[in-house]
Amino acid sequence: MLCLGLSGGLSRVYENSFDLPNTFMHDGAAVLVRDGRVIAAVEEERLNRIKHSNKLPTRSVQYCLASAGVHLNDIDRIAYYATEAYCNAVLERVRLSHPSAPIPDARLLLCGLLGQEFGAEIDPSRVSFVSHHMSHAVSSFFMSGFERSLVLSIDGGGDFLSGLLAVGSSTEIEPLVAFPENDSLGLLYLETIRFLGYGAFDEYKVMGLAPYGNPASYRAIFQQFYELLDDGGYRVYLDRVGPTLLSNIQIRQKGMPFTQQHKDVSASLQEALERIVFHVLRHYTKVTGIERLCLAGGVAHNCTLNGKLLYSGMFEDIFVQPAAHDAGCALGAALMASHDLGHPAPRERLQNVYWGPHLGSEGSVEEELVAWGQHLDIERSDDVTGKAAEWIADGAVIAWVQGRSEFGPRALGNRSILADPRPASNKDRINMMVKKREGYRPFAPSVLEEDAAKFFDLPGTLREFPFMNFVVSVRESQRSSLGAITHVDGTARLQTVSRETNPAYWELINAFGKRTGVPILLNAAMEMAALRNGISRARYAVPRTTFLSMRWFGLTVRFPLRREGWMTGAAKLA
Q1: Could you tell me which residues come within 8 angstroms of residue 52 by beta carbon, excluding any fewer than 6 positions away?
Q2: Residues 79, 5: contact at Cβ < 8 Å?
Q3: Which residue among 114, 289, 295, 409 has its CA within the 20 to 30 Å range from the CA of 441?
Q4: Packing angle, helices 384-393 and 503-516, rounded to 10
Q5: Which of 129, 163, 196 is the endpoint of a domain?
Q6: Is 122 a domain residue?
Q7: What pLDDT, in 10s, does the model give residues 75-121?
Q8: Is residue 206 part of a domain?
Q9: Buried (b) or exposed (e) across 464-502, using 16+ Cβ within 10 A?
Q10: CA dihedral defined by 397, 406, 437, 540, rounded to 10 degrees?
């Protein structure tokens, strides 16, 4: 049984036939599930290069179908990540402003777009529209391996709501309370960061700025923006945010330096978010007696909040769906459809999200090398991990690419920029060379799972953090020696690497650890735009199937290549 989950907009790329608002649907993705198990998933932005793409995820669907060797007509159910009533309500607003435009309802519109793109006749009965927040909740609980847990979905908004709290039990999820859109914690965050020179999808940047500030400075002001109610309820007063901040802080324009005032506002905002979420969860944990938690929704990418929940001792275990933002709703929608057709997801803990496009066979790599033959010096190597570890220990920055890409926003060892985590100066070096981002933002560490507790103060008995979803404390004795990955408050957004889940990445970290005594690497996302911005004398270590990822930019490259196994290389922009 094949089920295809979709997130994203209802118009084709570079088209907006019905003047749909840009905020109507975003983070397009497609996820293909066979009998409750994911076989392919990718975000549209990785393929069309439009960040947070709000278009129909056509290329993502193409990839999923090709991975399974099927046609769209072979799919048993296509599930879209919002209710039909919500989609039709938005389309109705468009009709009011364009009364002469022939705008179909959401079901016919989606079927028509898919039919045009894939040359298929889509029976409307094969399409289902699912609750936005229930798809968030399902994407987390069904992947958690928990038999029973609280499930919290929180984001900016969807289906006229901003969140949902439910109880997951076996293969069912029972809602407890829904949070209306005007009490949106995501919108509270967004409304505030507008005064810090940021906008939509920049929330994580402010989370990184918060540790530089003092939340007490604006605590009293932020307490005017929300109210904690009895029985775990809360209310948000979004209309107070703008006027109050306008009269109390200096507005930061984009590109201006951050003052201590801006840092204090960030800290106060982060504290307010944490206080509200803790208030809700404390009540429902007490009422239900449940000691496990699943998180999803865009706010669940707030790794600082997640880490504090872990350290609070309120829960024995917490699972955060790695693609917690709206792209992850495609996963939830597909799993919901599969469940409805009698094929629920197995009760297993998610181990990895390497569901994206593979970079090809050795033959396809060699074909690429031949095409670039005038610009390449190729040689064979028998020890790629050893060579790459040596480079990193000697100060090189490595672009490490292997196998299938990750689903979600985190680089987890298959599409990663890697460096030595020890010199604090590496943060500035990588920002200058590749990332071109704010200097205050921290980089994340990847550590061997079995060595994590030596370097990081892990809460309780938990030892596996494979998805970079939690900020944890770096052990005080290790902070000075891990300058590149330790944030100003002594924390780090941790990824533990399992030998079973990603043996090649584990071997690289292990090889670096043998040379340096530190089995940790600085790990940053490999963005094509960042690579184009300028890598100077950066080196690449890639499996034999990965040269395909490098054909878009003019490179003078030196590649060691082994016929069976790995390729490594060094690259410099021409």
Answers
A1: 26, 27, 45, 200, 201
A2: yes
A3: 295
A4: 50
A5: 129
A6: yes
A7: 999 999 999 999 999 888 877 777 766 778 999 999 999 999 999 99
A8: yes
A9: ebbbbbbbbbbbeebbebbebbbbeeebbbbbbbbeebb
A10: 20
pTM for the whole structure: 0.91
Alpha-carbon gap, residue 363 to 251, rounded angstroms? 56
Please report the sign of the dihedral spanned by the C-alpha atoms of residue 410, residue 481, residue 319, residue 306. negative
Specify the DSSP element, H or E, that contains 305.
helix 303-311
Establish if 91 belongs to a structural domain.
yes
Put residue 129 in one of left, alpha, beta given phi > 0 → left and psi -120 to 50 → alpha: beta
Same domain for 456 and 513, yes or no, is: yes
Distance between CA atoms of residues 252 and 391, nearest Å = 41
Do 381 and 509 fall within a single domain?
A: yes
77 bridge partner residues? 3
Give the total number of structural domains in the chain: 3
Q: Are 270 and 315 in contact (CB under 8 A)?
A: no
CATH number, position 204: 3.30.420.40
Nearest-angstrom CA–CA distance, 88 and 18: 13
CATH number at residue 466: 3.90.870.20
Residue 391 corresponds to which tokens in the numbers above?
């480079």
Residue type, 345: A
3 state SS of 355: coil
Same domain, 371 and 316: no
Has residue 331 been placed in a domain?
no
pLDDT digits (tens, 9 = 90+) for 295-322: 999 999 999 999 999 999 999 999 999 9
Domain boundary among 100, 129, 158: 129
**Same-domain check for residues 380 and 508:** yes
